[in-house]
Write a structure and sequence with these properties.
Elements (H helix, E strand, L loop, with lengths): L3 E4 L2 E4 L10 H5 L3 E8 L2 E2 L2 H14 L11 H11 L5 E8 L11 E8 L5 H6 L1 E5 L20 H12 L4 E5 L5 E4 L3 E6 L2 E4 L10 H12 L4 E3 L4 H5 L3 E6 L3 E8 L2 E2 L7 H16 L6
Parallel strand pairs: 7-8, 7-14, 11-12
Antiparallel strand pairs: 1-2, 1-6, 3-4, 3-5, 5-6, 8-9, 10-11, 10-13, 13-14, 14-15
This protein binds pyridoxal-5'-phosphate.
Length: 286
């Protein structure tokens, strides 16, 4: 079956979908996107992803009008049109075209089949590297927003793959740990859970927020605090979160092994709690 997408109110064959040459994301990288999972045909934490986009649009002064109100029905329609139940959903919204500033925003929703990352990564843990090329600065007004200007993040991910790593960890100009290219990062030290605060800056991950909630429910001590490279290398456990990875253990940072290079107990526990939340109410926040 050929892929179907939702574009501006209609389901069309992916090959027939057309964007304007005046689209601001194409011309200038002006737009926002979200990526999330569907489990058993239900988008997970969709409402939270929409609200994050709404908050970014307000902060960055992007005129999206009521376009985001169409997303839930559009997601349902795309999943149905592609007959998908386990899927990677992406929605991309751009402001009106540059030659028709009073016109409507562009809304594109896609869904592709996925069963997630390879199971052996969760058993053995991922290797990650340090991102040398980019720094994440609080002086960058786009930091902490999921904009369509993701070239630096794609480039860092490509470098990581060349080094046989699954992610690259970004630091701030003053050497504080920020996040992965496409994920948030957590450390475990002495039984406590530590993650860089949102104003580091990092993207306020939807998975990060759920994992913090699950950690609180599990009675763990949580510290949202600045981390140095030393704290990272000295951690007992490290894991990453995003909507596709869920809770991804990290057992190596380049040549350095984390702890005993095995998936740690707190990572395992939070991963199980996440899976239980998915199984319990697949919609999560709807
Ligand atoms: N940080 C960055 C830079 C990201 O691009 C992502 C997701 O793509 C995340 C963190 C994790 O966000 P979420 O948990 O909402 O998927």
């Amino acid at each position: 079956m050929s892929e179907k997408v939702y574009l501006n109110g209609r389901i069309v064959a992916a090959g027939d979908a057309r964007l304007s040459v005046a689209n601001p994301a194409f011309l200038h990288g002006v737009g926002l996107f979200e990526t999330l999972r569907a489990y058993g045909g239900q988008p997970f934490l969709l409402r939270s992803h929409i609200e994050r986009m709404r908050a970014s649009a307000a902060k960055l002064r992007l005129q999206l009008g009521a376009a985001l109100d169409a997303i839930p029905d559009a997601v349902t329609a795309v999943l149905a049109a592609n007959e998908l139940s386990e899927a990677r959903i992406r929605f991309t919204v751009t402001p009106p075209d540059v030659d028709t500033p009073e016109g409507p925003p562009t809304v594109l929703v896609t869904a592709r089949p996925t069963t997630g990352y390879p199971p052996e990564l969760y058993e053995k843990g991922m290797s990650v590297c340090i991102c040398d090329d980019y720094r994440q600065s609080s002086h960058d007004p786009l930091a902490g927003h999921k904009t369509t200007s993701y070239f630096p993040r794609l480039a860092a991910t490509r470098v990581a793959a060349e080094r046989h790593c699954g992610e690259a960890l970004w630091f701030t100009p003053d050497n504080r740990l920020a996040e992965g290219s496409i994920s948030n990062v957590f450390l475990v030290k002495g039984g406590e859970l530590i993650t860089p605060p949102v104003d580091t800056p990092v993207l306020p991950g939807i998975t990060r927020a759920l994992v913090l909630e699950l950690a609180r429910e599990a009675g763990l001590t949580i510290r949202e605090q600045a981390c140095t490279i030393h704290a990272l290398l000295d951690a007992d456990e490290v894991f990453l979160t995003n909507a596709m990875m869920e809770v991804m253990p990290v057992t190596r940072i380049e040549r350095h092994a984390i702890g005993d290079e095995k998936v740690g107990p707190i990572t395992r526990r939070l991963r199980e709690a996440y899976a239980a939340r998915v199984a319990a109410g697949t919609a999560g926040d709807n």
